[in-house]
Amino acid sequence: MEHLELFFKSIFVDNMVFAVFLGMCSYLAVSKKVATAVGLGAAVIFVLAITVPLNWLLDQYLLQPGALSWLGEEFVDYDLSFLSFIMFIATIATMVQLVEIVVEKFSPSLYNSLGIFLPLIAVNCAILGGSLFMQAREIETLGLAFNYGVSSGIGWFLAILAIAAIREKIRYSNVPAPLRGLGITFIITGLMGIGFLSFGGMLTGGDEEEKPATETALEDIKIETEKAKELAENTKTID
User: Considering Cα of 99, then 101, then 102, then 106, what sign does the dihedral take?
Assistant: First the structure.
């Protein structure tokens, strides 16, 4: 349940685009066609799925205060947390370079259509935000970190895919001249954000198990009996 809750929450409730407005530059620039949006979204999912678990390992065994205790007792007091940004960005840049090489090798057309925005994944705030949120939320296990990376990437992918499909459709619509281009895109993004954030009211289930009806009825009878006894005692005292 913990994995399932994190998965759906990262996609719908804490969506990178609609909840915290990260990765908006690529979201707006590469969402004119569905094909390019799918390619960039898939690249973002891959990069997040690799970098978030890797950065979790770096954070747990290198950067946190006392994380170097596995090297010996003399390293227990070391705190390398000030290197978090540098280490996280280095990991992200390495993975983005790998993605760029693979896309250029196997899909030159997609590589050309994405243009400068493919290498710019390295400085995409949504990618770095995934690792920083993982660190801030103190995700406990490597599996949860991988889950969070994949689900955050899927959330970003769904956002750019949806806006790209809508922008392809409204291209043939009679949009008022002042709203054409980014104007109507921002309005649609706001409406989509409201829709995604509405999932925040969903209940994932109570922490306590519901008691059987017989037990509840017995407890109610006991309470009523105690109240009747107190009322009788108070009446005798007044008399």
Answer: positive
How far apart are alpha carbons 113 and 80 in whole angstroms? 40
Q: Which of 55, 43, 1, 57 is nearest to 154 (CA)?
A: 43
- 204 in helix, strand or coil? coil
- Position 189, amino acid: T
Q: pTM for the full model?
A: 0.76
Give pLDDT tens digits for 164-203: 999 888 888 888 888 888 888 889 998 888 888 787 766 4
| 77 three-state secondary structure | coil
Helix pair angle (34-58, 142-170), 10° resolution: 160
Residue type, 22: L
SS3 of 190, please? helix
Which position has the token pair 């990178």? 16
- Cα–Cα distance measured from residue 18 to residue 192, given in angstroms and rounded to the nearest whole number: 8
Largest CA distance in the chain: 97
CB count in 10 Å sphere of residue 87? 17
**Average pLDDT of the chain, as a whole number:** 82
**Spatial distance between the Cα atoms of 161 and 42, rounded to a whole number of angstroms:** 10
C-alpha triplet 51, 86, 92: angle, nearest 5°: 25
pLDDT digits (tens, 9 = 90+) for 69-99: 888 787 888 888 888 889 999 999 888 888 8
